[in-house]
Structures are given as C-alpha cells and as structure tokens.
Amino acid sequence: MALKKTHAVALCAVLLASGCSFAEEALFPSSGTVQQGQAAGSGGGNPPALGASTFEPPGVTPGAATGTFVGGKVASLRGDLQQLQGNLSRQNQALQAIRNDTVQDSQRYHGTVAAINARLQVGTTPGNPILTQQWNAAQGELDRITDDVLKMNRLANEVTSSSTMAGYLLDSVRAARSLSGAVDEDHRQLRILEDETNRTVVLVERLLTELTEDATRQQSYVASEKQNLNTLAVAIKNGQLFGSSLAGRGAAVSPASYDMPMAAPRAAVTTDAALVTIRFDKPNVNYEPALYAAIKGALDRRPSAAFEVVAVAPSGATPGQQALSATTARRNADAVVRSLTNMNLPANRIRVTSTTGNTAGGGEVQVFVR
C-alpha cells in the first residue's frame, strides 16, 4: 500500500539516522532559547488561589427561663444553635488548617519542579538519577496536595450536614412563634434566636461555597500537574527540557510560530508529507524531543489536530521476513504512541496504521497531521 500523503506543508524530522543518511544539523537552537509558542518548562504552573475568609460563628445570646412550654422550647432550640455553632467553629478551624497545609505542600512541590527545570534548562545527562530522585519527591509532594483536596471534600460533606441542620433549625425557630401559651419574653427571645440562627445559616452557606470552590480549583490543578509531571519525566529521560503537557493545548498563535524549535542532535529537517519521520535503524533512537516539539507546533497552529502514527515496514524477501519486519515496525509505532500519551496527548486523537515501503532495515514510523 502506498504511503499516505497530505497536501499541507509540513516538516519532517529524520531522527538519528546512521552513516551518511543524515545531515549534521541540530533542530533546536544551540543557545537553548525558547521561541514563541513554547513553554519554558514542564509543570510548576501557578497554583490556584485559596479563599481567605474565616467563618467564626457570632455566638448565642443567653436567655432567662420563663416557666412556659414555649420558654422550654426556646431553651431547647438555643441549645441546638449552640451545638451547630460549635460544629461550625471546628469546621472553620479545619478549613484554615487544610489551607495552610495546601500552601506549604504547593510551595515544596513548585520548589522541587523549579529545581528540575533549572537543571534541564542548562542541560544534563539522560536519566540523571538526581533529577529522577527530585521527580519522585515532586510526585510525593503532589500526592500530599491530592490528600489536601480529599480533606477538603470530606470537610465539605460535613459542612453540607451542618447546612441541612441550620435550615431545619431556622424553620423550627420560626414555627415556635406560632405556638400558644407564650408570654412576651418568650417571643422576644425567639426574635433574637431567629436572627442569630439566620446569621449562622448565612455563614454556613458561605463556608460551603468557598470550600467547594477551593476543592474544585485544587482538584483541576492537581490533574493538570499530574499531566505536566508525566511530560517532565520524559524530559528527564532525555536530559532535555520540554514544554508543558500536550493535553489541552490550543492557544491560537501566528503562523510564524510554526517554525518549530526542535531539539534532536544529529537530525535534519526536510520537506515531506509527514510531520515527523523516525528511522529505527539503530538501538535506542532518541526521538522524543523532536517528536514533542513537532506535535506541539502542530497543535499551536491547529488546536483540533489529530495524528496518525504509521508503522512503515521494509519489504521483505520472504513472507516470514515480511511478517517479522511488520511486527518490529508495529512495536516501534506502539513505542511512539506511548511517548505521545506520556506527553499527555489524548489517546482519542491518535490513530495507528501500518504499511510497507522502501525504507531501511529497521523500518520507520511516520507521524501525519489529520
């Protein structure tokens, strides 16, 4: 089957070809500068702001016993409000403690990620064990932020129960005003109790709203940082700084930014229908930096782009050789797909196909924009 062609102008990065089949031209600028459309590093985006409000209850005004049935009801309702406000006070203290822990965990996480990015920026060895250890530390710190989010969600469930109790108590206080056998002092105390209960209801709702917003923002942030950590792991593996996660990319940029800064040593740029062509004619082909830059550039230009990964097997002299070559080519294509998913390109935007062609003995993997 003939190789598929696209009509758009694309860039082909022929990676790490052996012998004389490559040009000694680096695809990334040697100065390490970051051009328009490329993020300065993986992970470490600013964490979302947490709410700053406190929710201390206003207190409950004491009242003297009147000796009536309604007076006894007022005393019982006053005790319920005191219990509710006690719960609210504890929940407020728990929220402030969680916020403090989240800030400290975020600071440690971003400090670790910044140190990794700084080392990658100046260049390092592939799979540097120090950076790997720092990445593991960052993963642990992000896990602690995840635990903070779980604490927020558990606390939100408790505050929801308090909100239900507060609404029921307010209805009960209002209903008590219609009871017969009350004296004027009973109704005076009920008016005070209703006002204080109403203020408590408002405070509980404010606490629940702010807590829910904190938890939602932090949960989204943690999910994004997990994706960025995956991309950072690929960068550490290659010893070269990547940009941010490919997930959710789509900011519109000018067409000029499609002159992609690629960083693959001993690689050449040629014009071809494929966005990237990777020749697997030697062990351990270091294709990920240029693959990342090419995919990122394509997404910057067309955010809705999908990608076809084509396993190109060389034509074999015998059916057995052909089958073996096809298996090897497919295995290489699967490795490229894993690299893309580790960079957090959504799996539903990747399609894998196979074909044969006049290629080197190790076969090729070509990536097309669709």
Could you outline the blueprint of secondary structure elements for this entry?
Blueprint: E1 10-15, H1 69-122, H2 129-176, H3 184-238, E2 267-272, E3 276-279, H4 288-301, E4 307-314, H5 319-342, E5 350-357, E6 364-369
Parallel strand pairs: 1-3, 4-5
Antiparallel strand pairs: 1-2, 3-6, 4-6
Structure notes:
This protein folds into 2 domains: 10-39 and 243-369, 60s Ribosomal Protein L30, Chain: A; 69-238, no CATH class. The two termini are 19 Å apart. The chain has 5 helices and 6 strands. The chain is elongated and about 105 Å long. The chain has helices spanning 69-122, 129-176, 184-238, 288-301, 319-342, and strands at 10-15, 267-272, 276-279, 307-314, 350-357, 364-369. Strands 2-1-3-6-4-5 form a 6-stranded mixed sheet, with helices on one face. The protein has 370 residues and is of the alpha/beta class. α1 (69-122) runs antiparallel to α2, α1 runs parallel beside α3 and α2 (129-176) packs antiparallel against α3 (184-238). Helices cover 53% and strands 10% of the residues.
